[in-house]
Design a protein that fits this description.
5% of the residues lie in helices and 25% in strands. It has 209 residues and is mainly beta. The longest helix is centred in the C-terminal third of the chain and has 10 residues, at 199-208. The termini are far apart.
Length: 209
């Protein structure tokens, strides 16, 4: 039968010996109120964890060993971890696939500065690997509204050795062996493949033809 207890003041349970535990064996434990857990360790061994709060606060003390780094770790193996952390010293978010249980060891790569620097400058910049971190530049951008890539610079075409496959409703530009056009730069479409001609070779052909 249901049992109810009402008390006036605090209700304290104290075990006598340090190893003693307080164990509650029940189907569901309902706490109608705030739950304040004070201690060094809190283990939650459940198959599913449902958290209503849209933001989880980590490193709330912001003191001690983890004052400069805090984040989330996940097991890769029994002894290796991957994670995402905020490096407060550098002011950047970082990723790692080979850290330890402290989140301090291994290699961490910058993924965002949270400001207008890399990989910003501006937000339309196309990101690339910049010495092991995400990079971006205002001279290399993508306009999503117009499906346009802008490159304020030059593009290098390496000799790919063979012609690429034909793509429907598209044109492929590539570099291959130099032929009569003297450029080695080819355009390929469903209509065929042709080499772009250089100005010097164009003048030569105009003189002899």
């Amino acid at each position: 039968m249901p049992t109810q207890k009402r008390i006036d003041g605090d209700y304290v349970i104290t075990t006598i010996n340090p190893p003693d535990d307080v164990v509650v064996n029940t189907n569901t434990l309902v706490v109608n109120g705030n739950l304040d857990v004070v201690g060094n360790l809190t283990y939650i061994n459940v198959d599913e964890l449902n958290i209503r709060d849209p933001f989880i606060l980590l490193n709330s003390s912001n003191t001690g060993t983890y004052a400069s780094n805090s984040g989330i770790l996940t097991h890769e193996t029994v002894s290796s971890f991957a994670g995402i952390r905020y490096n407060a010293t550098a002011g950047v978010w970082e990723l790692s696939v080979n850290t330890d249980s402290t989140g301090l060891a291994g290699t961490w790569s910058v993924i965002s500065s949270g400001g207008t620097g890399i990989p910003g400058a501006p937000v339309t910049s196309i990101q690339f690997n910049s010495s092991g971190a995400f990079g971006g530049d205002a001279d290399f951008t993508f306009d999503a509204a117009n499906s346009a890539v802008t490159l304020q610079g030059h593009q290098v075409f390496g000799n790919i050795g063979t012609a690429p496959g034909v793509t429907a409703n598209a044109v492929a530009v590539y570099h291959n062996a130099v032929a009569d056009g003297d450029s080695g730069l080819y355009v390929q479409s469903a209509a065929g493949t042709d080499e772009l001609i250089t100005r010097q070779r164009s003048v030569f052909y105009s003189l002899i033809l």
